[in-house]
Amino acid sequence: MHRQSFSTFFFSAFVLGVFSFPVFLNAEITSNSENRPNVIVFLSDDQGYGDFSYTGNRDLVTPNIDGLARDGAFVEQFFVCPVCSPTRAEFLTGRYHPRGGVFSTGAGGERLDLDESTIAQAFQSAGYATAAFGKWHNGMQAPYHPNSRGFDEYYGFCSGHWGNYFDPILDHNGQIVRGKGFIVDDFTDHAIEFIENHQTKPFFIYLPYNTPHSPMQVPDKYWNKFKDKPLTQMPGTPNAKVKKGKGIDHARAALAMCENIDHNVGRVLEKLDELKLADNTIVLYFCDNGPNGARYNAGLKGRKGSTDEGGVRSPLFVRWPGVIPAGNKVNLVTGAIDLWPTLTSLCGIPLHDQKDHPLDGISFDLELRGAKVKRKPRYLFNAWRGKVSVRTQQYRLDNKGVLYNVMNDPGQQTPVNDRPKIKQELQAAVDQWKSTVLAELVEEQRVFPVGHRSMERTQLPARDAEVTGAIERSNKFPNCSYFGHWVNSDDTISWPVEVMESGKFRVEVYYCLAQENVGAELQLSMGSHQVTKVVDEANDPPALGAENDRSVRGESLVKDFQVLDMGVIELDQGNGRIELRTVKMPGKESIEFRLLMLTRVE
């Protein structure tokens, strides 16, 4: 929420489900929540439309995901956003991402406004057990955290990307924990455990996997199949040299990661079969944007970051045995904004009026059930960083105002010049969308909330911090970065914050420090309150991640940071700046810094 302070926002209103809209038609489902179907939503990260054997890729096999289409429905014209956090916001809210204040993939701009309701809250209010396992990317500190947005259980990471996929540091309901094994396998393990523990109650599980997003890491079992494999459908020269991490090894690693995803989807489906839950569980799979590199994309123009077909078209697979006909193909133009109304309709959950926040999405549950529905023509908009493209059932007007008949020309090779009226109508629709929906987006510096009562802990990572002096970030992409080169005692690391409620907080700093620099004294302060601590134990581990990379990375390496307990600080309610400085520096440098954790103790 960017137009009012945290302290004036009554978060409980939508957590409790204060709504008033009529339910969609769904005669087969009773009002008893115990009889409603379970829902599992898979969302992959940077997997393109062409990264499935079902969509024509001959260089990999994805039998479990393909099986969702064989046993259920394939939505042929389904669209998302060009990059990660906007797609997640549109899925969560059923609304175009500018309405929710999402304007970047980091630095706080990925946070979803607090006056937005989420699909998880709708299912939670309907009596479902809710959980998310994976990459969140819509805010870290409560009340932006998944546990504050309708998920009873969360295990994953809240940033836009992560630096190491093996035994990584993760977030479990706000607490920092160590993951086990390969990250997607680990997320799946937790999802399976949740299913086992909630098999007698309807559950809503969101599995936003973080692959094949870089760094390009995957277990040997999958990489060994691809590491020397000629790729027959690569754009340009089939075995092009690696260039800036986006060449043949990048593509091989991506496909290997996609096969790992398929394996994990299969594990979940097997568990549903084992527990005899498959017939009463809706399983849905889609991607968050186009592919993150040059590889086969079914002839579509563009990839991640583009508002053309290849940047925003995703396959959508939906299975519900006995309700969704096997092999059903839905040709209606649909998008991530439609999943909230569609899933709640399938589950018999009333779709309530959000007053000033109406859904942009529509339900296409009737088409999923196999019905032939005559609908009015629809415009679906794809946008990022001021570039707006619009899609109809037949045409796309790209962000430069060029019209294409994408039903016949998905590669957008030949502009349509003999339909001036259609072009004019679509341009008018884009102009109106920009002046209304896009105009709602306010790109502003928002403070970070501290001490929200919905969670005991508040994380303030290096990602969100500002520095002075010679301090350097480990990588230009901030999401999993840390700070080093702290060579001057006058230099600082700080965060603009709003303390939600006065109290006392335990201060923990995640740090590295060479032996010759032991004795550095840190001071954390806000206003007149401060706490100091001497770092009397070295922690000088090597940088990790490169040893697991299959292709050149762009993200920061990581380290095993140690926790320094600095004691307890008192924080007063209100806005201010939390600042970390080094008051004594006996060696050449102070600490390398990764994370500040504040835990309410009083």
Give the gist of this structure.
Helices cover 19% and strands 26% of the residues. The protein has 11 helices and 27 strands. The chain has helices at 12-15, 63-71, 84-93, 119-125, 183-197, 220-226, 248-274, 309-312, 339-346, 365-368, 420-436, and strands at 38-45, 73-79, 129-135, 153-157, 169-172, 175-178, 203-212, 281-287, 313-319, 328-330, 334-335, 380-384, 387-391, 395-397, 403-405, 448-450, 457-461, 466-467, 472-473, 483-484, 492-499, 503-512, 521-526, 529-534, 562-571, 574-584, 592-600.
Outline the structure in words.
- The chain is of the alpha+beta class and 602 residues long.
- The protein has two domains: 37-112 and 126-379, Alkaline Phosphatase, subunit A (3-Layer(aba) Sandwich); 448-600, Sandwich (Jelly Rolls), CATH 2.60.120.260.
- It contains eleven helices and 27 strands.
- It has helices at residues 12-15, 63-71, 84-93, 119-125, 183-197, 220-226, 248-274, 309-312, 339-346, 365-368, 420-436; strands at residues 38-45, 73-79, 129-135, 153-157, 169-172, 175-178, 203-212, 281-287, 313-319, 328-330, 334-335, 380-384, 387-391, 395-397, 403-405, 448-450, 457-461, 466-467, 472-473, 483-484, 492-499, 503-512, 521-526, 529-534, 562-571, 574-584, 592-600.
- Strands 1, 2, 3, 4, 5, 6, 7, 8, 9, 10 and 11 form an eleven-stranded mixed β-sheet that branches. Strands 16, 18, 21, 23, 24 and 26 form a six-stranded mixed β-sheet that branches.
- Helix 5 (183-197) runs parallel beside helix 7.
- Mean pLDDT is 91; it is low at 1-31 and 237-245.
